[in-house]
Amino acid sequence: MMYMRLKKNRNSVSSHGATTANVKRYIDYASLHGFDALLVEGWNIGWEDWFGNSKDEVFDFVTPYPDFNVAEIRDYAKQKGIKMIMHHETSASIRNYERCMDDAYRFMKENGYDAVKSGYVGNIIPNGQNHYNQWQVNHYLYAVKKAADYKVMVNAHEAVRPTGLCRTWPNLIGNESARGTEYQAFGGSKPSHTTILPFTRLIGGPMDYTPGIFENDIHKLNPDNHSWVNTTLCNQLSLYVTMYSPLQMAADLPENYDRFLDAFQFIKDVAIDWEKSWYLEAEPMEYLTIARKAKGKDEWYIGGTNGEQPRTSQVDLSFLPAGKYVATIYKDGKDAHYKENPQAYTISSQKVTPKTRLKIWTAAGGGYAIRITKAE
Prior knowledge:
Strand order of the largest sheet: 6-5-4-3-2-1-7
Number of helices: 9
């Protein structure tokens, strides 16, 4: 599933965007570009008094703001072929969430929501508990099992790192559970970060990393925030291949994608689930290149993610079956740099075979993405 998000600014009530009109605009955009679903944050009352206040009862998970018409949005999304994903921010008040959980899941099903993104931002309530102790780990399992009772898919953020639980409870479609893209707005992660996670965090299960950021300067979105996304645009494209999840997000604003529609095409094309994967080259903290075959299709995708040092990647296509193919290559421009020129990229196509060896230069904090299809 590929989804988009209408995100609330967690530190600003005035930035409330979860209005019926705005959600419809996002539904239209998601439908136009072939996405499966839309997640809306900030739809339910309580956001004006939630963070850092250690309040036990903040959200009830069934009461929308007056300008968020649940039924109207439900019907409009269905008409456009878009599934809606519910958002449950608990503000780390676990007792309150468990008290409300049955009502919340019933409300979801009554309104056509089959998936929930849950969040656990803040210090755990009751005091003395934390995100990783046994009491809280038991809660995560309880939430997944309760969701299964209602046939609800769970994508948990700020939860404990998974250890294969999704094999027993496959409705746990993914977790964040490490520094995802959101942390780029909290001072930024190092460019090497995503060359490490596939060998650490992702061993436990799929990660909802939320890639796809095309605008690096967070200040343009929030004048009080001077953070910077420490990757190039093509590095962001590569993450759809290297950071495995059957649930992927296009995490930027529609207006930023509209500025780079040719690069946005890769996000629209890239597969979500895979039949087979090949790790072509890797040095944690430095670089990582992965190739994958799309499930049920004669399409192959390659993602190359680079750390701090520019380098030339060696891409061996011998994993391809015998035949002739066309490779569409999205790569850093010759003057690209994650800090100085992150939006410099080129797109080219060339004929390839299993004997082809590609040499692709990647910038500092850069990367590349390749789509391979059979030649006509």
